[in-house]
Known about the structure:
By secondary structure, the protein is an alpha/beta fold. It has helices spanning 17-29, 54-65, 86-96, 108-111, 120-126, 142-145, 162-170, 181-190, and strands spanning 3-10, 34-39, 71-74, 100-107, 129-132, 150-152.
Amino acid sequence: MNRKTGLFFGTFNPVHIGHLIIANHMAEFSDLDEIWLVVTPHNPHKKKSSLLENHHRLEMVYKACENYENLKPSDIEFKLPQPNYTATTLAHLQEKFPTNEFCPIMGEDNLKTFHKWKNYEVILQNHQIYVYPRISGGKVENQFKEHPKINRIAAPVIEISSTFIRKAVKEGKNINPMLPDAVWHYIKLMNFYK
């Protein structure tokens, strides 16, 4: 029996409770067996300068996942050519783990621009996609509205962003409730985002 593995991609700069709520919801309330939090070294759409080093972001994801049996950190994209494209990562994973069925997880905001992704047709042809709700403008392309490979999961709508957290830390705000304890302690210990 193939393991259905959800792939939750992100720069996780830093990983926060919003990420964990979505990932855990997917693990518990969909037919996915496990969720891999795939730490992206460099998103082609983000400025690299604001990113913490890869190993620090991965360490925070490790700390965040410690108490969740079905959530696993992944550094698979660290070993792939830059910039990272989901289609390339999926092809690599399928080759490396042939008994897993890999399913990308994305927010509805990403589904609205999915038709612009590199090789999006190949992704749809070979993979189920799991979508969680987001509050965002724009509309989903008609081709994706009732697509049999696109599974909409009624997860909680989370409006916490890593950008907000970095800014709040810089301003000396106490944002402890928005982060797993171990991640909060690591950020303080390393003096990140100041």
